[in-house]
Amino acid sequence: MVQYTTSRLNTSFAALSDATRRGVLEQLGRSDASITELADRFHMTLTGMKKHVGVLEHAGFVTTEKVGRVRTCRLGLRRLDEEAAWIETYRQIWAERFDALDQVVETLKLREKADD
Fold first, then answer.
1. Are 73 and 35 contacting, i.e. CB atoms less than 8 angstroms apart?
2. DSSP symbols for 13-82
3. Distance between CA atoms of 57 and 49, rounded to whole angstroms?
4. Is 4 in a helix, a strand, or coil?
5. Where is average pLDDT lowest: 42-51, 75-84, 92-101?
6. End-to-end CA separation in angstroms for the chain
7. Chain CA centroid to CA 75, Å
8. Burial class (CB in 10 A: 0-12, 13-18, 19+), 23
9. For position 3, what pLDDT does the model report?
């Protein structure tokens, strides 16, 4: 089985667990934005948006650059390869379990049909 960095996965999934942060990533996928623009778009205070951006920045999903008084946010270089691989592992496990369950159901249907 593939070994994953637990702390990195925890940080990533914690960052992605919030709908606002996912929305920020979606917005930054379209274009860079200042924290003020993001706060306005998501109807939040600057302080609240700074906290969200900080979580995303800590996870490596966002980078910020301050020019003058404006802090501009853009998508970071961090990709979701490790997280996607972790999810895929569990998707395969569940797919195997559901396939096994399908076989049990089919066997029971055949027995029921034979008993009639």
1. yes
2. HHHHTSHHHHHHHHHHHH--EEHHHHHHHTT--HHHHHHHHHHHHHTTSEEEEEETTEEEEEE-S--SHH
3. 12
4. coil
5. 75-84
6. 46
7. 14
8. middle
9. 57
In which residue are the tokens 């390869």 written? Answer: 81
Between CA 97 and CA 80 the distance in angstroms is: 26
Neighbour order of strands in the sheet with 33-34: 33-34, 70-75, 62-67
Using the Cα atoms of residue 74, residue 12, residue 40 and residue 65 in order, give the sign of their dihedral: negative
Kindly tell me the sign of the dihedral angle through the C-alpha atoms of 5, 6, 10, 13.
Answer: positive
Q: Is the pLDDT of residue 114 over 90?
A: no
Tell if the pTM clears 0.90, that is, is over it.
no
